[in-house]
Amino acid sequence: MRFNLINPKTNNCIRMKTVDAGTGKELSRSDLVKGFAIAKDEYVLLDKEDFESVKLDSTRIIDIEKFVARETIDRLYWDTPYHLVPSGKDGIEAFAVIREATKRKGMVAIGRLVMSTRERACAIEIEPTSPNATKTRYAS
Prior knowledge:
This protein is α+β, with helices and mostly antiparallel strands. It has 2 domains: 4-53, no CATH class; 63-139, no CATH class. Helix content is 17%, strand content 39%. The protein has 2 helices and 9 strands, in the order E-E-E-E-H-E-E-H-E-E-E. The protein has helices at 48-53, 88-105; strands at 4-7, 12-13, 33-39, 42-46, 63-69, 78-83, 107-115, 118-126, 134-139. The mean pLDDT is 82.
């Protein structure tokens, strides 16, 4: 989503110099709120509390939705790789099952996780050059 900076007193969009587009008056950034355009010159105003109320907490859980063949993923859409490390006995056992199944079948696990308060799509694959190395990649 793309938001505009809005002067909540006049409901006008704010320019990059934090100048009220309707009055031409310069404002402090601390006086502004974010707004989402719903029509021309009409905005839904959102404050810091609105964003805090929908902030996602890290759950340390990966929800795997499906498995796909490695060659069906266009690498153009892949973002930064991360090394995946399980924790706890249950995590290690579940990880070992997924690792062996994906390695044997040449598959990649597709799922979702929360990282830095943002839900991200991810792909879990066994690094082909190292039999025990696993990378998780996040889609932007």
